[in-house]
Amino acid sequence: MQHQFEYHDGTTRALNYLKNTLTYNKNTVRRYERHWLLVKQHMECYNQEWISPDVCRDFLLTIYKGRLYKELSQPEKALNRSVCVLSQFLQHGTLQRERSNSYLDGPIGALMKDFLALKSTRRLKPLTMEKIESHMNKFNLWLSVNNIFNICEIEPKHIYGFIKSLPPNKKALIHDTLLDLKGFFRFVYENDIIQTDLAASVPKDNYDHHAKIPSYYTEDEIQRLLNSIDRGTAVGKRDYAILIIAAHLGLRASDIARLKFENLQWEKSTLIIQQYKTGKEILLPLIPVVGNAILDYIQYGRPKCDEQYIFIQSKAPFVPVRPITISTCVGRRFINAGINIGQRRHGAHALRHSLVKELLKNRQTLPVITEVLGHQKTQSTKHYIRIDTESLSQCALEVPMVDPLFYAQKGGILFL
């Protein structure tokens, strides 16, 4: 498909696709059309006759004005979404399931793609590759909004500025980003693309993956969470099924998002999947509370579509939900339920931790818990033992009282 059109032709095709193929509602289509008129005004300012993905990207850069996506207002995010939809249609002639805010354009983006290609030859897991690409996306976007488009223009101050822009409380994100930036700069230096080894300028951190006790919630809090969901709506049925699976089976968000009908063995009351993170196949019991929740969603809440994935977006385009959607859904439901989360994490993984807490409370052995979680090694499961503070307290040794004569020796007052 050609990638540039006369404005009226390109937008008319896109609007017809949204209305007739994806059956978007009228209000959404009107909003998109209003937003696209702003792109037209931008084109007129620069005497541009043809609309294309590049024009859409240039327009969005004027909206960002040096800011990150998270710093945009809600109206600006809605505008960003509308223009991205138009750009994607102009590029592909359809709306594809893409990672949000993917940005590996330009000369630096091309080098990042080469770096990712090299990484892909090292048999890294798909999830690891996705994380690396996400970090590259964010860095390239930050460089673009700060008017840096050539690899030779990057200085240590730019690296520090980008790291400073990341959420300070996301220690794991910062740690992984630092490692990937170091790897990228080592790649371009060793291939003689830059003359300065910027990998040496990437700051170090003291992140400890096991520094904190995993967040978990009590059985009562989990029940309050589930009871707070309105199961009379399609979204409620979907979210309830998602939370039931996470709470009772302990599946990761990445595995819940990728559940297919073929994974459900109704006649055997089992669920069999190959885990996305580890590649290990696990067999879990399809207990009634889980099976009934899934069935209720499939029959009365799931949009009619040909997708083989179970969980689908509630609005067009009806495509499978993403893992981030699962985590966001769980987090939102915790807040709406009025549960005091304090400093605890409240995504899908917190429900996985909570299941471990209950298993430990019921005196399940470590090998059994390892099998339930689908860990490849028992060593990975040992990280969760710290949750069981009640049992650990029984291992504490009593500290004997100090003999009063100790303080009285050599004249007392601790030998002074």
From TrEMBL:
Positions of the Tyr recombinase domain: 212-397
Classification via InterPro entries: DNA_brk_join_enz, Integrase-like_cat_sf, Integrase_catalytic, Integrase_recombinase_N, Tyrosine_recombinase_XerCD
Keywords associated with the record: DNA recombination, DNA-binding
Molecular function GO terms recorded: DNA binding
PROSITE patterns: TYR_RECOMBINASE (PS51898)
GO BP, sorted A to Z: DNA integration; DNA recombination
Record carries keyword DNA-binding: yes
DNA-binding recorded as keyword: yes
Pfam families, alphabetized: Phage_integrase
Top-level lineage group: Bacteria
PANTHER family in the record: PHAGE INTEGRASE-RELATED, TYROSINE RECOMBINASE XERD
Protein name in UniProt: Mobile element protein
UniProt organism field: Elizabethkingia anophelis
